[in-house]
Amino acid sequence: METVPDTGQSTVDRRTLRRVTIAGSVGVFVEFYDYAVYGFMASTIAAVFFPQQDGTAALLLTFSIFGLTFFVRPLGGVLCGYLGDRIGRQRTLVIVLMLISGSTVAIGLLPTYSAIGLAAPLLLLLLRLAQGFSAGGETAGAMSFVAEYSPEGRRGVLVSFAQLGSYVSLLLGAVVTTALTETLGQEAMTAWGWRVPFLLAVPMAVIGFYIRSKLDETPKFQQLRKDSGPASNPLKEALASARQRKAVVLAILIPVLNGTGYYVLFTYMPTYLNKTLHFSVVQGLLITVCSLVAIIIAIPLAGRLSDRIGRKRTIAGSALSLVVLGYPCYWMLTKGSVWLAVVGGVLMSILFAGHTGVIHIVLVELFPTRLRYTAFALGYNISTAVFGGSAPFLMTYLISVTGNGSMPAYYLVLTAAVTALAVLRIPETAHTPLKED
């Protein structure tokens, strides 16, 4: 059987490597599928779960629930990371996947505001908090899992394939939402059609559980068990030394652009195009779908590029290009032409791919195996909570207060600048082994 060497430390056959990459992708897919559906159907969810005397207020409440769930992600990341660093990545990721999937399906079964009043949005909030908690443990675990199997020289591209799951889920969410809206009409979508995308999580969960439950623990974690043993308290170790504290701070600052890019460029984009720029729902989703196809193609190329020229150059180039071109790309969106908007969205997507396709391997390589899951999850989820999850609410609020439709462009440029400065503070890790201690 053909194998892939890992600098003489371990040997992984190519079939296992493919299964590992799929296993990493599938949980990320399920995690972000829910965020995609919720974001794309924000206007419908606002109509279903809130009183309609004030449409803007209902939309703000919908996005506030979206944002609040992110603030339990660091807690979920730390607790899931503790499990992952203590009992192993594989078992923890199976548990996380089941919690994410169960919460998503439960949302599809909720009664509406017209049926039970204020209890409906409260139940929605509780289930979204459960999703946020479990999602806090998904990304760091899945990316660590794939990276700890991957051979040197290919870690970037293989982890970027795992990241594809999040954008494929966005694409599926956009296609499903568009197809249902066009087929059923808005009245039927508000009555019952909104449930269908959430209930589709059932087959996804079954497939994901099967794939993840059949895999072994990563070679790196197995070796850790044989050598020094897992950390007794990975969170304490992650914050105990100045070196690790610095790494955690960098894990907060470097992904700042990722939160903005993902949740402003994609999750919030259909609402922005419809409510602020007055494209139709279908036109807004068409622009978003074209942007998603572009980034899905570009992400593996970015991962491969980072294996060749380095992580720092790839991410810094992406961030600086968005500092320069972010506003002109948004300007194209505002001109009222669908095809000009497609050009702007696709260009932003390609530029952003250099960040989102590489950010996770950068964070994996910042930390040693014994505390990688916990430290990665802590930094990344704080960054995502502050700069990503709050973005749709913040953009909706700022646009409603100022009347300035360019707020997302300013936010994108600002966060790109923060990422560009932060990434200069890390060593290049593309061509070195994963840290062991």
UniProtKB/TrEMBL annotation:
Q: Where are the transmembrane segments?
A: 20-50, 56-80, 92-110, 116-136, 157-180, 192-211, 247-269, 281-302, 314-333, 339-363, 375-397, 409-426
- SUPFAM superfamilies per the record? MFS general substrate transporter
The answer on whether this UniProt entry bears the keyword Repeat reads no
Q: What is its main location?
A: membrane
Pfam families in UniProt: MFS_1
- Name any one GO molecular function: symporter activity
Record domain Major facilitator superfamily (MFS) profile: where: 20-430
What membrane topology is annotated for this entry? Multi-pass membrane protein
**Keyword line:** Cell membrane, Membrane, Symport, Transmembrane, Transmembrane helix, Transport
Q: What is its subcellular localisation? A: Cell membrane
Q: In its keyword annotation, does this UniProt entry include Cell membrane?
A: yes
Q: Can you cite an annotated GO cellular component?
A: plasma membrane
> What family is this?
Belongs to the major facilitator superfamily. Metabolite:H+ Symporter (MHS) family (TC 2.A.1.6) family.
* Purpose: May be a proton symporter involved in the uptake of osmolytes such as proline and glycine betaine.
Report what the protein is called.
Answer: Putative proline/betaine transporter
Q: What is the lineage of its organism?
A: Bacteria, Bacillati, Actinomycetota, Actinomycetes, Pseudonocardiales
